[in-house]
Structure formats: structure tokens, C-alpha cells
Amino acid sequence: MTNLASDNFKKQTQLQEHTQESNFAISGMSCAACAARIEKVLNKKAGVASATVNFAAETAKVRHDDSVSDEQIRAWIAKAGFDAKPLSEKSVVAEHDEHGGLWRLVLLWLLSVPFWVGMLGMMAGSHALMPPIWLQFVLASIVQFGFGWVFYKGATASIRGGLANMDVLVALGTSAIWAYSTYVWQQGEAHVYFEASVMVIAFVSLGKFLEMRTKKHSLNSLTLLLDLIPKHAKIKRDGAWQEVSVDSVQAGDVLLGRTGDSVAVDGVVTFGSGMLDEAHLTGESRVLTKSVGDVVLAGSVISDGSFEYQARATGQDTALADVVSALNEAQGTKANIARLADKVAAVFVPAVVAIALITFAVNFWWLGAFDEALLRAVAVLVIACPCALGLATPAAIMAGMGTAARHGVRFKDAPSLEAAGHVDTMVFDKTGTLTHGKPQISAVHLFADDLAKSANLSNFNETLALTLTASLEQHASHPLAKAFTQAASEQNLALFEVTDVQSVIGKGLSGVIEPFGLIKVGVPEFADLPDFDAYLGNEAFAQPQWRFASLVALSINGKAVAVYALTDTIKPTSERVVSKLKEDGIEVVILSGDHQAVVDDVAGKLGISKALGRLSPRDKAEFISQLQADGRQVAMTGDGVNDAPAMAAAAASFAVGAGSDVARHTASAELVGESITHAYYAQKIARLTLKNIKQNLFFAFIYNAIGIVVAAVGLLNPMIAAAAMAASSISVLSNALRLKRVRLQLD
After folding, report:
1. Which positions carry the signal peptide feature in this UniProt record (predicted)?
2. Mean pLDDT over the full length of the chain
3. Do residues 472 and 576 share a domain?
4. pLDDT in tens, 118-140
5. Do residues 32 and 389 make contact, with C-beta atoms less than 8 angstroms apart?
6. Nearest to 259 by CA among 304, 308, 309
7. Percent of the chain at pLDDT above 90?
């Protein structure tokens, strides 16, 4: 299993070396079928490795080789009937579209007022308030071919591209009503239905506008994050404070931060102090004291104090910009659960058109009334809503990703969030994950009487042992290694030069130090001390720290000369996190490379019943693979290089923010900060998101199933059907927005 994961990783790496990724803002999509069409077109093109289109986010992510340019991709999308622009232009385009859309909507509803007045009069039993038929025809024609032109344009483009979308349903339905009403008017009949075509277009347009507003302002967390950055900042130039645009701030500039301000760029405090809230990055709403030498992050709110800080990173180089970029990329991906909706959307519109034709034929045969049969068929066309189906998954994913980011969890993509939502077993590494990962040397024992002598060493003492150990450990990044290098630094020890350094992940290091020879540092069995447990009965090892400590041995030329006991403390949040996970029905397991007694001690204090020690990285990965083979859905949380194979084997994996680059690269989500509280948040938010998706899909399927039947038997006229269709999309978005209100806390 581990070899397979390694092979897949190598293939992905090789593929990435020859591909690049382009992101576009897509306009003109009216339902999930449009997104599916663009994906289908792009994925068929030579040079395109993969293409994913997010209907809710209105974005496309295309991975392609060097033979394909962004202009070529935009041309392919345009040929499919849609418009694509670089994602960087999206905000400008959206502002323009929203402003123009609002005015079009206002004018459309003003033109519909005469029909509203007439319909209210008819409800009161009077036809006198209905405009004359010629005026109805004029107003309806303006609406049909002016404001409704967008539906004709979208329908034509979709059909030309080889699919039928929501625009086809609206264009067909309203055109049929307008054409029939025009025909009977010309035949001298007074019973026309121009108000139906007008109100259908008005309600559908209102629904699409509200949908656009919701997706842009409420659903999308990117806007909220970007709003944290102030537009202007006070900077010191020529000895005086000047207010300038944040965009003009450069690295090295000195800025002023005051109570109530937001930090404009990433920097370091050079004068003064203040209290800052970094919840937008860490997910922890606690105020931190910042003074000279401390780092401040863009978007942090200054709750009290005043200080000067020097800019270190600006614009796209800030930590907040990195969060926005990662979130933007993640929201553009597609969860596996969305595939069902995509399959339905691909055949939805043709199926609805067929049902509408059958509805017309059956009702015309049964009732003998052409106009009533037509109205029922149009109601079927209008009430059917592929939009709700298409929005069900991506809307919840966008909201869930944003909520996770606010809680200090950065999911890499939608499948990662989905996998985390199914987790029933949470595996933790011990050192640096459940514990602080800052062990201290609590005891040392030198084998001076026999082993040291056999190594032909004279004057061997603790100082020399520490110097040798630290000299080798400086080439490692494990928390235990840092304990030795820190201790050597505190004693001002001059470290030796080491050659031929070899690292065995999960075991230790070896290298050559002249004039001593081959040096090994690591777990006892690696450093030539395979039977250390036998020593624990000796008086020299009777103290508790030897039984409940991490052990590191030092050997010279195959002979163990020293062994260290290192103790670490459990993070204060670990016990509460484990308790909350167990309350949610999640089994908690510890897998560690440390001594079994140490692992058992930590497990006992945290109330964890299953804890295994002395495991190599391969052992951890194989254990997780076996759990999953038994039907468990496993998430691995760790922070080190030796956790990476286990993370790769797990269905979901979380990297503690202070961990190694390898762990963060392998993990499906990165936890900001050192607390594992975010691991609890990650699975909880993922579960809530999956639940929300299932609710949305259920509602969308039930709405369409019931709505089509009700319309087919004549219980809904086209106007009510259009209003219901608009409401269905808004209801799905509103349900997804409930995720934005989630506020998780351990207590």
C-alpha cells in the first residue's frame, strides 16, 4: 500500500513538472448543465490534462501543458457559448455586471406593473384594470425580446454547444405563451396570456439576480477576507506621517498602527506595543500582545495600543493573501458527491422538455382545450429547476471552505473536505501533535564502565556526549533533535563537523565525526542498544523519567556510550479535543515511534484506549491501511516527516501548522497554529458541510419531482411556477449560508 502511494505521488510530481494551471472567471452559465458542458469541451482538447468548472463560484480551473495558451482556452470556452476572463479580472467584471443587472431588473419590473394591476383587478372580479390588448402586446414584446434576449442568447449558445440548459426551458415556455397570445389576438379573440410570459421572465430574472448577489456577497468568503485589509495606511516618509494607498506600501516602509485599525501588511513591530486579534488566520478569537520584535499579520485588528511596524511582506506576499489564494483554489474544485448532480443535470433539460410535450398532448386530448394544455406544459417547463440541483453541492462547499478557513483550517480541495466529513477514526502522532513537541533533556546515563572503555575513549563525559549528539542532530528537524541543539547552544558548545550523514526516518541519524569515527544517534535499537529494556530494572534507571520518557541513544563505532531521557508536556487542549471527538462517536488512536511506555502514559492521561509505540513510518501507514481495509474512515493528524506516509495512506489527513513542509504538502488540510483544536474543527465542519449538501440535494430532487407533477395536472399556472423556480435556488443558497453562521468552540 505504501509503495503504491509512493508510485502515485511520483507520477503526480512528474505530471506537475510538465503542466501549468490557469484559472478563469466564467460568465453566461445558467445552471449546472452549462458547467458540465464546459468541462466536457475542455477535457476533450489535446494538451488539457484536466478541467473543472464550479457553477456556484463561476470559475474554471484548467491544467494544461505548454502547447496550450490561456487565449486558446478562452477561445474554446467562447465557442461553447460562454465568456472567460482571467480570474484576476473577476471582481471588476462582477461589479459591472451587478450594477447593470440591477438597473435591468428595475426597468423590467416597472414594465410589469400594468400587468400586476390588471391581475389584481381580475382577482377582485374586474377586467377593467387590465391594459388593452395592443398595449399588452407591446409591453410583452419588449420584455420577451428585450429583457428576455439573454435567455435566447443562452439557449442558442447551449444548443450550439451540444446541450440544453435552463435558458432553453425559459425561452421555450415564454415564447410559446407569447406566440399563442399573439396568434389568438390576431384572430380576434380577447383571451390572451401576455401577462404570463412577462411575469415568468420577471420572476426568473429576479431569482437569478438574487442568486448572483448571494453568491458574491454572502456565500463567498474571499470577499470577506479581502475586506480585512484597509484601503489606506499611515506610513512614515521624510520623517512625517502620510496617509497613502495600501497598494503603494513597499517592504521596508514603516507604518503606524493605532487602536481600531487593521494591520495593512505583514511586518515586525519596531516601536510601541498593542493588543491584536488574529482570528481571521488562526481561527482562535484571543487577543495577543505584540511588542518590539514581534510579527504582525495583515488583517489583524488592533484592539488596544499604538505601535510602529516595518513592512516585511505586502500585497500578494502576505499571509492573508496566501489564505485567500488557497481558499480560492480549493473552492474551485469539485467534490465527488457532486458527480451525481452532474449526471442528472446532463439529461435534465431534455427530460423536462419531453415531459412538457407529453403533458401538452395528454391534457389537450383529455380537456380538448389548447390554451389550458399549453399553460400546463409551460408550467412544467418553467417550474423545473436544474439551478437548485447544480447549486446544491458547490454552494455548500464554498460556505464550508470559508467557515473552515475562519476556524484555522485550510482544506486543499473539495474531495479533501468530503473525505474529512466521513471520518470515524482519528489517528494522532504523539510528539508535536498531542504534546508540545518541545522536549527537554531530563536525564542522561553514560555507559562509562564498560561500553565507553571498549570504544577506546578517554575522558568521556556528559559534555562530550552532548556535543557529539548535537553535532549530528543539527542535521535533523525532529523536536527531539531540537532539544539537543538547544541544550548545546545554551552551553555554548562548539559542534563538530559531520560527514556522510545518513537519515533513517523514524529511527535516527548516522555520520562520521573525526577523530571518533562512525556516530549514531536515535532510538536505542538503532544506536546499538537493542536490549535497553533490560536496563530498566537497574538502580541507575529507577527514576520515573526513564520509564515515561522518550529515549535517545548515542553510539560510537557500534558501541552505545550514552542514553538520554527526554520529557515533553501534553498540550492543554489535547484532553478536551479527544473528549469532544469521542462525544461525536469518533475513535481516537495514537501511533508513535516513541517508547511504548511513554505512549501508554500519554494515552492514559488523555483517555485513549488504543495507542501503539515503536512504530516506523511504514508501520504507521500499514496500520492505517489495515483500518481502512476493515471499513474504517481514517484521518491522520501529524506534524513531522515520519508522519507523511501515514498521512498519504489515510482517507483524510491534517498537518499541524508548525510541522514540517513534507507533512503540510502531504496533508489534505493544514491546521493553522500548533493546537490540535483545529483537527476537531476540521472534521466537525466537514460533517456539517456534507449534511448540508445532502439536505440541498434532497430538497432539489423533491422540489423538481413534486413541482413537475403539480404543474402537469394544472395546479400551478406559469407565473406561480416561475416564482417557485426562483425561490428554489434561493432556498438552496440560504441553506448553504447556514454554514457561515457556524461558530465552534471546545467549551
Report:
1. none
2. 83
3. no
4. 777 766 666 677 889 899 999 99
5. yes
6. 304
7. 29
pLDDT given for residue 1 in this prediction: 40
Q: Which residues, in sequence order, are bridge partners of residue 54?
A: 59
Residues 537 and 635 placed together within one structural domain of the fold: no
C-alpha cell at position 277: 486579534
pLDDT of residue 660: 58
CA-to-CA distance for 338 and 693, rounded, in angstroms?
9
Task: Select from 296, 327, 358 the last residue of a domain.
Answer: 327
512, 538, 567 — which closes off a domain?
Answer: 567
Cα distances (angstroms) measured from residue 47 to each of 13, 19, 59, 161, 615: 17, 9, 20, 20, 44
Q: Hey, what's the torsion of the CAs at 116, 120, 126, 128, to 10 degrees?
A: -30
Rounded CA separation 663/653 (Å):
9
- Classify residue 290 by burial, with Cβ atoms within 10 Å: 0-12, 13-18, 19+: buried
CA 92 – CA 387 distance, rounded (Å): 25
* Strand arrangement of the beta sheet that strand 508-513 belongs to: 440-446, 559-567, 550-556, 517-522, 508-513, 499-504
Q: Are 651 and 419 in contact (CB under 8 A)?
A: yes
Q: Is 276 helix (H, G, I), strand (E, B) or coil?
A: strand
pLDDT recorded at residue 4: 44
Number of domains in the chain: 4
Residue 146 C-alpha cell reads as 428585450
- Which CA distances in Å does 294 have to 62, 250, 288? 40, 19, 11
CA–chain centroid gap for 301, Å, is: 24
Q: Are residues 444 and 542 both part of a single domain? A: yes
Return the closest-CA partner of residue 81 out of 134, 123, 40: 40
Does residue 429 sit in the same domain as residue 490?
no
CA end-to-end span of the chain: 39
Rounded Cα gap, residues 31 and 207, in angstroms: 13
Q: Which domain covers residue 309, as residue numbers?
A: 230-327
Chain length of the chain: 747
Regarding beta strands 425-428 and 409-411, do their DSSP bridges make them parallel or antiparallel, or are they unpaired? unpaired
Q: How far apart (Å, rounded) are the C-alpha atoms in residues 135 and 614?
A: 86
Going by C-alpha positions, the residue among 647, 674, 648, 649 that lies closest to residue 659 is 674
Residue 21: its pLDDT value, please? Answer: 83
Give me the mean pLDDT over the 630-651 stretch: 87
DSSP class of residue 458? S
Let me know if residue 200 belongs to a domain.
no
Burial 553-585 (b: 16+ CB within 10 A, else e): bbbbeebbbbbbbbbbeebebbebbbebbeeee
Same domain as 665, residue 648? yes
Does residue 69 lie in a domain region? yes
Tell me, yes or no, whether 644 lies in a domain. Answer: yes
Task: Give counts: helices (H), strands (E), the chain.
Answer: 26, 24
Q: What are phi and psi of 517, to 5 degrees?
A: 110, -145
User: Cell numbers at residue 411, please?
Assistant: 482544506
Catalytic positions are 429
Q: Look at the block and give the residue holding cell 449558445.
A: 157
Indicate if 466 and 545 belong to the same structural domain.
yes
Domain harbouring 641, CATH code: 3.40.50.1000
Where does 416-522 show beta strands of DSSP type E?
Answer: 425-428, 440-446, 499-504, 508-513, 517-522
Whether the predicted model's global pTM rises above the 0.85 cut: no
Residue 12: per-residue pLDDT: 45
Please give the Cα distance from 658 to 676 (Å, whole number): 11
- Phi, psi for 560 (deg, rounded to 5): -70, 130
Paired residues of 553 in beta bridges: 522, 563
Q: Do 431 and 579 lie in a common domain?
A: yes
Whether 693 contacts 415, CB under 8 Å: no
DSSP 645-678: HHHHHSSEEEEETTS-HHHHHH-SEEESSS-THH
